[in-house]
């Protein structure tokens, strides 16, 4: 049971009724939601055709029997919440090194700081704050603040579980796409993943404020654990669809790197996050190819993930948006 804490919000997110809303009640947690049409993949009896179909037609699927202990997921969520409820000033001061704090924009540099100063476009602020966790650099780091240190340990454990899960999925997709096993084994980086814990603050405005604007992920795969509030939407056949929160399941997205590797057979799904009249928490894991691994395909010029990331960062700084794979198309 948590109570909202006004001081924990970045100042632009502080609205008059922040203090009365958002007492996490058990009724909402136990709410049973209808299953949406998002494909369901069972990791314990993985069906390659079903998986391939989900990646081709949807670019997103719901993963069940994923093997990640429920207790770990709920501990992670609890610990993230505790950290989000610290005062805004403490969060700004506390998070340095491999765990950084951000708000108002999801566009970060590789070191985890905001790419653009928020003052440059206050009207485009994303209604979100988060912790960015660089998994490869987590181990040697020990936080003095005990709460942060437990968070670090949980993140490390979660990252280990997820790298196994994602590697199983990646191998299955490589088979489904008939990729050369020798080559594909070297694509998935063992060290470059990162995790983001998000809080989408309560928002009373019903205007064009978004938690996250429409985007595709740059990753190979992204794996999302979301709470019971909802807000994530995916674009499918010209329409936006809600991705309902279903207990004990994870959401897997295909990202741009997987779309390129698959020669555009798989879709890097467009998605966005709506703001709600309740706070929402989610935790997202992203996995990438090694920075200097060359991605060969018939649709794109050979490029490395390092090239891609540099281009995305350049476009965000100069145009204010990510152009993405279009930049690397053969006939561009
Ligand atoms: O929080 C969510 O539901 C989605 C997060 C997301 O799309 C992202 O971090 O790229
Ligand atoms: Fe995303």
TrEMBL record:
Keywords: Iron, Metal-binding, Oxidoreductase. InterPro entries: DIOX_N, IPNS-like_FE2OG_OXY, IPNS-like_sf, Iron_ascorbate_oxido_reductase, Oxoglu/Fe-dep_dioxygenase_dom. GO terms for molecular function: metal ion binding; oxidoreductase activity. Signal peptide: none annotated. Residues 190-289 form the Fe2OG dioxygenase domain. PANTHER family: 2-OXOGLUTARATE (2OG) AND FE(II)-DEPENDENT OXYGENASE SUPERFAMILY PROTEIN-RELATED (PTHR47990). Belongs to the iron/ascorbate-dependent oxidoreductase family. This is 2OG-FeII_Oxy domain-containing protein/DIOX_N domain-containing protein.
């Amino acid at each position: 049971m948590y109570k909202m804490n006004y001081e924990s919000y970045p100042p632009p997110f502080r609205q008059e009724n922040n203090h009365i809303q958002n007492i996490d009640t058990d009724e909402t947690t136990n709410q049973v939601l209808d299953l949406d049409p998002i494909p369901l993949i069972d990791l314990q009896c993985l069906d390659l055709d079903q998986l391939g179909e989900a990646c081709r037609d949807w670019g997103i699927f719901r993963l069940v029997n994923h093997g990640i202990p429920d207790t770990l997921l709920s501990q992670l969520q609890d610990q993230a919440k505790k950290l989000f409820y610290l005062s805004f000033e403490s969060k700004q001061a506390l998070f340095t090194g491999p765990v950084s704090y951000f708000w108002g924009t999801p566009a970060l540099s590789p070191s985890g700081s905001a790419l653009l100063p928020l003052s440059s476009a206050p009207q485009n602020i994303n209604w979100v704050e988060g912790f960015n966790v660089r998994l490869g650099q987590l181990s040697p780091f020990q936080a003095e603040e005990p709460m942060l240190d437990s968070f670090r340990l949980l993140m490390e454990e979660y990252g280990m579980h997820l790298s196994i899960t994602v590697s199983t999925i990646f191998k299955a997709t490589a088979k489904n796409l008939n990729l050369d096993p020798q080559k594909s084994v070297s694509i998935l980086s063992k060290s470059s993943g990162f995790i983001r814990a998000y809080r989408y603050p309560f928002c009373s405005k019903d205007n064009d404020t978004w938690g996250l604007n429409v985007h595709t992920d740059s990753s190979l795969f992204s794996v999302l654990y979301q709470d019971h509030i909802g807000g994530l939407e995916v674009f499918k056949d010209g329409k936006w669809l809600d991705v309902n929160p279903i207990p004990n399941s994870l959401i897997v997205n295909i990202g741009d790197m997987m779309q390129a590797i698959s020669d555009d057979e798989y879709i890097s799904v467009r998605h966005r996050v709506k703001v709600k009249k309740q706070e929402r928490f989610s935790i997202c894991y992203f996995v990438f190819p090694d920075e200097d691994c060359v991605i060969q395909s018939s649709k794109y010029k050979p490029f490395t993930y390092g090239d891609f990331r540099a281009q995305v960062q350049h476009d965000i700084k100069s145009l204010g948006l990510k152009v993405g794979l279009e930049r690397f198309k053969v006939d561009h």
